[in-house]
Amino acid sequence: MSERPPSYRVATDTGGTFTDFVVFDESDGTYRIMKVPSSPLQPDQALLTGLTTLAEQGVPSDAISVFTHGTTVGTNALLEERGARVGLAVTRGFRGVYEAMEQSRPFGPSVFDLGYTKPALLAAESDTVEVTERLAASGAVLEPVSDEEVAEAVRRFSESGVESVAVSLLFSFLNDEHEQRLADALRKADPNLWVTTSSELLPQMREYVRLSTTVINAYVSPVVGRYVGRLSAALERLGVAPGRRFTMQSNGGSVPFDRTPDRGVATILSGPAGGVTASVAISRAVGIEDLITFDMGGTSCDVALVQGGEPTVSDQNTLEGRHIAVPMLDINTVSAGGGTVAVVDPHGSLHVGPRSAGAVPGPAAYGKGGQTATVTDANVVLGYLNPVSLLDGDLAVDAAAAERVVAEVAAPLGVDTVRAADGIVRIVNVKMGQAIRSISTERGFDLRDFTLVAFGGAGPLHASQIALDLGIPRVLVPPSPGATSALGLLMSDVKHDLVRSRLTDVSELRAQDANSLFEQMHLAASKQLAQEGFSEDSTSYRYFLDMRYSGQGYENPVPVRTVPLTEEDLTGYRRDFDAIHEQCHGHAAPDQSVEVVNYRVQAIGLVPPVSLPTVPPAEGPVTGAVTGSRPAYFPDTAGGTGSYVPTPVYARAKLGAGHRVTGPAVVEQYDSTVVVFPEQWAEVDHYGNLLITKVPSAEERSSR
User: Fold this and answer.
1) Buried b (16+ CB within 10 A) or exposed e, 539-563
2) Rounded-to-integer distance, Cα 309 and Cα 190, Å
3) Radius of gyration of the chain (CA)
């Protein structure tokens, strides 16, 4: 019998500085990682370079059976306002909905910002067309759209030169007839025109958030679609995973390549979502269910809260003041990464961010032309990062350049270089600490109940100090922190979220009607999964009822345990809603009427699991993993001025299960560096995770 040919699953996550690869060998269940410099102007170039390198290392492209990609193309297009020129079609008389937005400042610091301005419209007023048509709140046609109106809209958009059109008509979530007529005419007139209808993308109530989400999708989808199309063609030529190519979505699941261009808005948090997925799996394996994920890369830091093993998913999100209503993991992002730039303003104040040196020119320490001080340069000066090379010698480090640019920051501050470097790190830590507080303590959670899961290339550098500052009792550093987000892509199932709005008082809702709607959504989802190659026994479904007290402006999702529903079930879910509302908002009103607003179905195509490898037990003393020593700067325990102390450097690859590293210490590996502070120690568990905790006092140790 001939041997089975090798087969690999490959996941890639494009970051601001590096593009990460995880290669899973299906023959023996092992995986390995690789990093290549990102190519911001042509993100697919770094992917193709990486695939070429993998082929040279014995992973031929045609042996890759599954390819999953986390991308920032859509995110960057929105943040940098480099999306398509968008036309907008609205019901006559409602063109002001988009500009008015929610008619108020957003919650948070903007409330106190005297210079606050709303974000620019992605669809200009001159590219907005009003269409005479009207549906009633029941979905019944009050005024049909005429052929003349449709033809006029098509002519206007054709003459304006828009590349993409968002169609969002009033009450179209109940009746899509008018939107579809307009969309069909637009596509027929110009097959190259990108058309997004709100009834296909987001058939739910609330005209502004539905309109905003539709416009954002129309804005980023052409950019994402062209990128995915170009990448798909290149992968096709290489023979990579035909028919099994996936893109990570913001909801923590993936979607086939051919579905990605229609829903570019669903990729806004593509990469960070992979990190949350992997963190949950890694933490669950060691019995941790309450965690804060801390993903610090080259340009940004992403944090998320997970309680009871379930990450929070929100369908009401904002990015740079723009509203997005598709399901997304509740991830808070701040501009704090290894490449974040430090500057001194004319008033003599030190600022860190939001600008980043990115992959090009990058930090000065990387020797690629960077001339400004970054967080990475400060970490080199403080002795945390290897002053000679990173990535196992693949990336040379110019310590003198790091010293020079940090000294340029120190001069106008009137302090020495070390003090300036320490200030840079402290400021960026405070920014990231505030991001953690905003998703935890500001929502009533006690950080003493959570574990900080630190990953990304720079996360383990900063996590120990942040945990001490915030009172988080434990830090978990996964075995491959620099590629944890890419590992999460391998672990992600295919997920499709369906929603339908039907506003009904629970006391008047019949189980038969709810079951009918759930059945329609289930059939549509199961058909989609079947087309994507998933058999019935490799799928699962989750059902939710979005409920609110009558008249409220927000809802809470209530999980539905079994379908079909009974009348008794509806009564029980009404009580569940009270409990959920009290947990989320601090109060409940059991005597008030409750409405069902939305019906949701999450359809999941289950991919083969990726098992986490274990590490062998420690052999010999931990000193056998020491590779050297260097001076590293640590503040004193009171938070004041610190000093350099001789710090042992450990090779993580030489640490076995049961080894304990006592701080101060630096643990180096290919894709990241871990810093353990003097009052901490780090223990290696069965899966190779580093668990960092405060060293117990003598009294605590004697009581054990």
Assistant:
1) bebebbbbbbbeebeebbbbebeee
2) 47
3) 27
Rounded to 10 degrees, the C-alpha dihedral 287/689/438/205 comes to -60
| pLDDT at site 698 | 60
Report the share of the chain in percent with pLDDT over 90. Answer: 76
CA distance 263 to 198: 11
Task: Report pLDDT for 2.
Answer: 46
Q: Which residues, including other chains, have CB under 8 Å from residue 255's CB and lie 6 or more apart?
A: 246, 247, 249, 263, 266, 494, 495, 496
User: Please, what is the average pLDDT of the chain?
Assistant: 92
What's the CA gap between 110 and 320, in Å, rounded?
Answer: 11
Low-confidence ranges of the chain (pLDDT < 70): 1-5, 105-109, 637-640, 698-704
Q: CA-to-CA distance for 451 and 477, rounded, in angstroms?
A: 10
3-state helix, strand, coil in the chain (%, to 5): 40, 30, 35
CB 249 within 8 A of CB 264: no
Q: Helix 399-413 and helix 417-438: axis angle, to 10°?
A: 90
pLDDT of residue 292: 98
Long-range Cβ contacts of 424-427 (<8 Å, 24+ apart) = 424/342, 424/350, 424/352, 424/373, 424/375, 424/378, 425/375, 425/378, 425/379, 425/382, 425/462, 425/465, 427/342, 427/350, 427/351, 427/352
**Both structure tokens of 129:** 């067309």
Nearest CA-CA partner of 581 in 610, 603, 548, 541: 548
91-145 residue pLDDT tens: 999 999 999 887 776 666 677 777 778 888 999 999 999 999 999 999 999 999 9
| Cβ proximity of 304 and 278 under 8 Å | no
CA-based torsion, 205, 264, 166, 102: positive or negative: positive
CA atoms within 13 A on the CB side of 292: 34
